[in-house]
């Protein structure tokens, strides 16, 4: 396969590497992800994360394994393992469905490589289209609030919600971005803050519990988030804490937008109740670990509830910004997503 480089993915010498998103922002460290076991481990640990990026990394790995001589049955088994690695993010399933079609072709090796590269190119185009459609909704002087990480670290392109914010800033319409730190893994504090700094976008980092006070003071003009799955009725699964923001935004009369590629839409999923929600390890809540070591602040026997995502009902969403354009609540109510 040709040499390839995005913000978080690299293909070189027929090996797949991912940017370790657990090491950011202190260190830019590339890790080998050239086996199914390695990539699944990186996905589980969130060293590679973001719904679009997870699907793209799995697709690239299948293509590389095929080029290295893996048999069709081995690739079928690898595909099944990768598919099960992140149950909520539907982009992974959608991408792998397309890779499965390529795998079914008689000459499956070049078909898999071509499809994986096509998915990378498409994601870049999707991100650009989302940014263009979404930036038109950002008014001059906007103070925006975002949750988790939705930039180039999570995609092959400029990102989804963060891509909208970056483009709106380039157009001179963003005064400040409030960045939720996004507990418990702090993707906002570690990743979004880093990306906005790299882009030169003015931001201020806040804890998740501070959003309500900012809204009450009239300091937030709109909320922009991404999505890991959009159900047919418009309900959205996203990083835990998103639902809280939507409720707060509704109460304070603030627009709440979801930015995502059409690959995040699951027309076979009727509503948010049908979206599988991944449960994460208790250790993510009872303490913290990193390059500095590990700290345990909760009792050793503390019982923990740690869902990775929550579901925001369609009734709380002001607009779904896809690469195909902006979908309104009225259109969703009329079955636009069905």
Query: Looking at the structure, what is the overall shape?
Result: globular
| Overall average residue pLDDT | 95
Q: Count the strands?
A: 17
Radius of gyration: 19 Å
Proportion of residues in extended strands = 15-25%
Q: How is the biggest beta sheet arranged?
A: 7 strands, mixed
The H/E string reads EEEEHHHHHEHEHEHEEEHEEHEEEEEH
Low-confidence stretches: none
Structural class: alpha/beta
Which strand order spans the largest sheet, edge to edge or round the barrel?
A: 7-6-5-8-11-16-17
Alpha carbon gap, first and last residue: 37 Å
Provide the helix percentage. 25-40%
Number of helices: 11
Description:
With 338 residues, the chain is an alpha/beta fold. It is built from 11 helices and 17 strands. The chain has helices spanning 36-44, 51-67, 72-83, 90-103, 108-135, 161-170, 187-199, 211-216, 242-252, 283-286, 329-333; strands spanning 4-5, 9-12, 15-19, 30-32, 142-146, 174-180, 203-206, 222-225, 229-231, 236-239, 256-259, 265-266, 287-290, 293-296, 309-312, 319-322, 325-327. The strands form 4 sheets. Strands 7-6-5-8-11-16-17 form a 7-stranded mixed beta sheet. The chain has a 4-stranded antiparallel beta sheet with strand order 1-2-3-4, with helices on one face. Strands 12-9-10-15 form a 4-stranded mixed beta sheet, covered by helices on one side. Helix 2 packs antiparallel against helix 3. It is globular, with a radius of gyration of 19 Å. The two termini are 37 Å apart.
């Amino acid at each position: 396969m040709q040499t390839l480089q995005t913000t978080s993915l690299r293909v070189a010498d027929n090996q797949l590497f991912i940017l370790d998103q657990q090491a950011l922002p202190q260190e830019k460290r590339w890790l080998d992800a050239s086996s199914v076991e390695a990539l699944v481990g990186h996905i589980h640990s969130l060293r590679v994360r973001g719904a679009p990026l997870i699907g793209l990394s799995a697709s690239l790995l299948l293509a590389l394994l095929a080029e290295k001589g893996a048999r069709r049955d081995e690739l079928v088994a690898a595909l099944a393992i990768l598919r099960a690695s992140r149950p909520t993010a539907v982009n992974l399933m959608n991408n792998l469905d397309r890779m499965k079609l390529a795998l079914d072709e008689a000459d499956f090796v070049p078909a898999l490589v071509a499809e994986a590269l096509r998915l990378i190119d498409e994601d870049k185009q999707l991100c650009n289209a989302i940014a263009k459609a979404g930036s038109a909704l950002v008014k001059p002087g906007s103070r925006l609030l975002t949750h988790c990480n939705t930039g180039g670290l999570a995609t092959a392109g400029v990102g989804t919600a963060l891509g909208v914010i970056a483009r709106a800033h380039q157009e001179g319409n963003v005064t400040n971005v409030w960045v939720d730190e996004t507990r418990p893994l702090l993707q906002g504090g570690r990743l979004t803050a880093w990306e906005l700094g790299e882009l030169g976008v003015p931001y201020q980092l806040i804890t998740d519990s501070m959003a309500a006070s900012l809204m009450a003071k009239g300091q937030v003009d709109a909320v922009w988030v991404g999505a890991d799955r959009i159900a047919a009725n418009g309900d959205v699964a996203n990083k835990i804490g998103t639902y809280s923001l939507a409720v707060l935004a509704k109460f304070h009369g603030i627009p709440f937008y979801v930015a995502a590629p059409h690959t995040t839409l699951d027309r076979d999923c009727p509503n948010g109740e049908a979206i599988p929600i991944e449960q994460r390890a208790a250790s993510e809540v009872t303490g913290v670990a990193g390059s500095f070591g590990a700290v345990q602040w909760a009792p050793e026997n503390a019982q923990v509830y740690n869902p990775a995502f929550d579901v925001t009902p369609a009734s709380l969403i002001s607009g779904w910004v896809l690469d195909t354009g902006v979908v309104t609540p009225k259109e969703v109510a009329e079955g636009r997503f069905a």
